[in-house]
Inverse folding.
């Protein structure tokens, strides 16, 4: 700049630098450090958005008053609003009145009462493994955290490095979590796109063909994203194949009670495997069935060969958790423990689970009936044969893009929708949009 626009010289006091600073600058110069250092992370590019939360963000930015969000797996009431269970409100009221409560740290493996009631809920109070003390449990950060700790445990202690086999398709975060623990993953057939149902023969063939001693990741109920579960007889066949091939089952149990409205029925696959004497892992979450999405309440369970082994494995779960997140949050665990230990609250919780699952079943029927009324090309019976929170519609990516861009309906690009996002006010509008994109791409 010209002298006329030059800044005035700083005062003498400002120009003078402490001897220590001058000494430090000379030391850096002697080390060959340039005066202007390059930013450490300048070349880091933006990561791609998460498949689910990226679409949720698109929905949030959409100003259309009739937009519909069917992307995120969280329950909504018939007004389309987040639903806080009455039993959770009641439990919180009781907890606030408890003068003995505090906000101290939990232990590394979490709330002892929470671990116990979680074991009994998922395995059944009379489970042989519980009576024999062969189950070790750690409270974790809901479903994802339980999977992460479980896979880290397997990475350290599974007898041989192997692949994790998950269903095709599966919940997108499962494979990512497994890979972060160092596992490669492969898939077994699950969804039959032509029949829009379970490809059970393909599933069995792929699990049989997997190298002996592989880790088989299974959805306990309400398969995400397809909403299609094996029948009880098919679960028996799967157990037989997994035992013959010496595979290790790892169950993801995110929807107990939410699939059929019956807690015992939704845990039947896990209980069958436990009754047959399988060693296994179970990742358990209370996000959906308690509506505790933000409280991150969950558990990882290991069914061990003996009580002594369970004690040893528990010590290693703690060693995994301590440097990962130190210890889990307290509030959600206190809510779940109080509800499951209090007969009156437990009864009310089961009633509310039934209310939520029944509303979703009603929305399945309403959607199918509306598509039939519109004479939408194709067969839509799979919508009512599927169970749980999600429906795998069979819509292709082009049709999903049209729904998002032209009809303000937000769903995953693989065609998965959250049935909880539908209600009596928007189900007809959604069906009409589906009818339009199916006809436009015929």
């Amino acid at each position: 700049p010209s002298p006329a626009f030059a800044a005035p010289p700083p005062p003498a006091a400002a120009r003078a630098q402490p001897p220590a600073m001058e000494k430090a600058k000379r030391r850096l110069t002697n080390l060959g450090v340039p005066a202007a250092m390059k930013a450490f992370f300048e070349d880091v590019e933006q990561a791609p958005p998460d498949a689910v939360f990226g679409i949720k963000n698109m929905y949030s930015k959409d100003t259309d008053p009739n937009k519909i969000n069917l992307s995120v797996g969280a329950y909504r009431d018939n007004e389309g609003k987040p639903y806080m269970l009455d039993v959770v409100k009641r439990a919180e009221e009781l907890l606030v009145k408890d003068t003995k409560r505090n906000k101290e740290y939990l232990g590394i493996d979490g709330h002892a009462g929470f671990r116990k009631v979680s074991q009994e809920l998922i395995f059944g109070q009379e489970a042989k493994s519980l009576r024999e003390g062969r189950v070790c449990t750690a409270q974790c950060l809901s479903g994802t955290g339980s999977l992460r700790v479980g896979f880290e445990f397997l990475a350290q202690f599974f007898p041989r490095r192997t692949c994790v086999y998950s269903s095709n398709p599966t919940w997108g975060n499962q494979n990512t979590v497994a890979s972060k623990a160092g596992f490669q993953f492969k898939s077994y057939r699950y969804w039959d796109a032509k029949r829009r149902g379970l490809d059970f023969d393909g599933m069995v063939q792929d699990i049989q063909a997997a190298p002996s001693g592989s880790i088989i990741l299974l959805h306990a109920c309400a398969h995400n994203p397809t909403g299609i579960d094996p029948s009880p007889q098919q679960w028996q066949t799967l157990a037989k194949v997994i035992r013959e091939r010496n595979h290790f089952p790892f169950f993801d149990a995110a929807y107990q009670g939410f699939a059929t409205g019956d807690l015992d029925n939704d845990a039947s696959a896990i209980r069958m495997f436990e009754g047959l004497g399988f060693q296994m892992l179970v990742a358990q979450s209370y996000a959906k069935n308690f509506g505790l999405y933000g409280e991150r309440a969950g558990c990882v369970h290991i069914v061990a060969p003996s009580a002594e082994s369970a004690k040893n494995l528990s010590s290693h779960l703690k060693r995994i958790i301590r440097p990962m997140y130190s210890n889990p949050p307290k509030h959600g665990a206190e809510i779940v423990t109080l509800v499951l230990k209090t007969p009156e609250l437990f009864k009310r919780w089961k009633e509310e689970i039934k209310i939520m699952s029944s509303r979703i079943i009603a929305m399945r029927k309403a959607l199918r009936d509306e598509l039939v009324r519109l004479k939408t090309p194709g067969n839509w019976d799979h919508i009512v044969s599927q169970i749980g929170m999600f429906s795998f519609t069979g819509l292709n990516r082009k049709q999903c893009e049209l729904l998002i861009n032209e009809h303000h309906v937000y769903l995953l690009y693989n065609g998965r929708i959250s049935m909880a996002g539908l209600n009596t006010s928007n189900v007809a509008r959604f069906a009409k949009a589906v009818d339009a994109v199916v006809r436009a791409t015929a």
The first strand starts at residue 68 and ends at 69. The chain has a mean pLDDT of 92. Residues 105-341 form a domain with the Aspartate Aminotransferase; domain 2 fold (CATH 3.40.640.10). The two ends are 67 Å apart (CA to CA).
